[in-house]
Design brief:
This protein has 104 residues and is of the alpha+beta class. The protein has helices spanning 36-45, 86-103, and strands at 6-9, 13-16, 54-57, 63-65. It is built from two helices and four strands.
């Protein structure tokens, strides 16, 4: 079983971490995730290191393949980490539950 996330359609998204510090004197900006707070929160909530790289989605058109939780040592589960409002997450969970009820 694959242990990676497959990006099927990137839209306007990039892999980001918290940036590179201590190089501005050479003309290199820190860069990193646009919303550093949300990036940190998403990583901590999913059990990752606070500064771990993540996919930052800045526009629509993103599609990915979710890998079963067995790849992460959690059979029967999968992870969702998305820096957004609780209302959007609640809606996403309801749509996932409807999809699973149709499939079962």
């Amino acid at each position: 079983m694959a242990e990676t996330l497959t990006i099927n359609q990137a839209g306007l998204s990039t892999v980001q971490d918290l940036g590179r510090f201590g190089r501005t004197r050479y003309g290199l900006p820190v860069n990193g995730a646009l919303d550093q707070y949300s990036a940190r929160v998403a990583n901590v909530l999913t059990g990752n290191d606070e500064g771990a790289p993540l996919v930052e989605i800045t526009a629509l058109g993103f599609a990915c393949t979710v890998i079963h939780g067995t790849a992460y040592g959690s059979p029967g589960y999968f992870r969702i980490s998305f820096a957004t409002s609780n209302a959007v997450l609640d809606d996403a969970c309801e749509r996932i539950a409807r999809a699973f009820s149709i499939l079962s």
